[in-house]
Amino acid sequence: MMITRLGTNVLRGSSTPKAFQVRCYAKKPDTPPIPPPKPAHFQQPQQQSPQQQQTPSGSPPSASALNGNTTTSKGYPRSPNVNSTIYESTLNPRDYWKGKYYDLNTKQAQALTEYLAGQQNVINQYRSVLPTKLEELENIAYKAIADQKEPVRVVVTGAAGAIGYALLFRIASGGLFGPTVPVTLHLLELPAFVSKVKGVEMELRDAAFSVLRDIVITDSPDRAFDGVDYALLVGAQPRTAGMERGDLLLKNAEIFSTQGKALNRFAKGKDTRVLVVGNPANTNALIAQRNAPKIPPENFSAMTRLDHNRGVAQLAIKTGVPVTSIRQFAIWGNHSATQFPDVSHTFINGKPAREVINDDIWIENTFTPTVQKRGAEILSVRGASSAASAASALVDATVDVHYGTKGEWTSSAIYSNGEYGITKGLFFSYPVVIDSQHNATVVKALNISEQSQKKIDTTEKELISERDAVSKLLPS
Hints:
about 15% strand, globular, nine-stranded mixed beta sheet, about 40% helix, three-stranded antiparallel beta sheet, 16 helices
């Protein structure tokens, strides 16, 4: 998730006690900036007289002082010069900062507001120079707030692996929870690889990330899962030469049953979220969940966000649009070659995807197998697995769980309660919407064609066969 940071000037606001006025300066964006919404229960600023609208020397005029014309011909808020834009809003501090994707409670938001207000003299000195100076000041405030907060504890298993390496720097830099949320990393590895993880720890500390509070390295699942908020289960037994699929399933059943039991004993229970990446991801999620009864089943998921991202990217390439123009794409089923990438309900720039593409043969014979077998293709071309894109997809998936999808669809393999006739208890990828309380809801009442149903049935059968292969190791 991209976070835009704007230099902020907290001014004296309206008569409403908790209201305040902010002016934000930034380089002119590619699209008109949208001011945060104004809650109805907060008073609007009183209209000022022309004399009141005059500003001190060296200060940019407010939007309302510019002859009553507050926008440019292209729809941007009118600027005092070519390098900055300005808008004003009056709202509750928590609403303002939440609108900027900063996860602050009311007390912390008020503290940040007061901190910036206390720097008024410094802000006044920087008004006539580059907006980056204001950003520097705001960064100081972010750190002050971060220092007051309890860190989010995140465990990453298989931390010495390629995915783990790509993932850890994203988390430690604030790319997962934002620049005001401190994190403590718990890194779990096999004893033979702990020394490699210590090398990664050295790099993480050398980067001097402001939100990285601490790092715990261990080969003990009990210690690794102690008190964690998020468990990112990346490590798994890879398939080696001559290994049968059944042997692979049983080996991973042992690993994930051990980790599930440790989660059950030491994690935060109902407040812990578990995302499984290690393959076979869906069945590994099932194994971990069945061994952690203190954690609600809906808190577990297997990652099909990588498949989702791959599908969206292919559609964007085919139609020549940005990935942000594609909505309501879905992955059904297993994170395997039987998955069903579904464009039946997808829109591209507001139009049905099939209508825009106008090529069902391409969808069936090129798009679908490309998404299904993309991992193998990358392995063949690159000579190594798709680690960086997997780590990026895991960040996307975790951000979705933590902050919600704001009404947009994503794909996630979640615990099935029988939606669309899928066997209850399987971890099956559905199109879902996630709310701000971390709850994923399957998109309901979709029209499933006969051809689509056959593909969904195929991937469900594979998941049932995987479940049955490890059934002896699953607690009842």
